[in-house]
């Protein structure tokens, strides 16, 4: 509101400056809107995952415990591409 009063007060009558400032505000608002739309999409994906847990509960058995599996071999480190050296040690954490 101060901006509008200043404009009509004659202190700021260059329309190009006003247009640049308003364009800057618009871009800032669009950036914030995109951020919040992305946030809303991420929250919706999380809610869908939560709903799936409810649907799948007691319908499937896990073949393996849902723990983190780490695979390593001495020659190439994590997940070797060399098929001959795929003597992988599996460690459940």
By helix and strand content, what is the structural category? Answer: mainly alpha
Strand content: 5-15%
Largest sheet: 3 strands, antiparallel
Helix content: 40-55%
| Strand order in the sheet with the most strands | 2-1-3
Shape, per Cα inertia axes: rod-shaped
Give start-end ranges of low-pLDDT stretches: 89-93
- What is the rounded Rg? 29 Å
* Residue-averaged pLDDT: 72
* Element order: H for helix, E for strand: HHEEE
What count of domains describes the coordinates? 2
Count of discrete alpha- or pi-helical segments spanning 4 or more residues? 2
Please report the distance between the alpha carbons of the first and last residues: 59 Å
Give the number of DSSP strands: 3
Q: What do these coordinates show?
A:
The chain is mainly α and 93 residues long. The protein folds into 2 domains: 1-60; 64-93, no CATH class. It is built from 2 helices and 3 strands, in the order H-H-E-E-E. The chain has helices at residues 2-8, 15-56; strands at 69-73, 77-78, 89-92. Strands 2-1-3 form a 3-stranded antiparallel β-sheet, with no helix packed on it. The chain is rod-shaped and about 70 Å long.
Topology:
Elements: H1 2-8, H2 15-56, E1 69-73, E2 77-78, E3 89-92
Antiparallel strand pairs: 1-2, 1-3
Q: Main traits of this protein?
A:
93 residues; mainly alpha; 53% helix
Briefly summarize what is shown:
This protein is mainly alpha-helical. The protein is built from two helices and three strands. The chain has two domains: 60 residues; 30 residues, no CATH class.
């Amino acid at each position: 509101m101060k901006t509008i009063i200043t404009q009509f007060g004659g202190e700021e009558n260059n329309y190009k400056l006003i247009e640049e400032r308003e364009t800057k505000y618009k871009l800032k608002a669009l950036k914030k809107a995109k951020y919040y739309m992305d946030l809303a999409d991420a929250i919706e994906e999380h809610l869908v995952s939560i709903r799936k847990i409810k649907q799948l509960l007691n319908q499937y058995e896990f073949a393996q415990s849902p723990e983190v599996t780490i695979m390593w071999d001495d020659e190439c480190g994590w997940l070797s591409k060399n098929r001959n050296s795929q003597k992988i040690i599996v460690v459940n954490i």
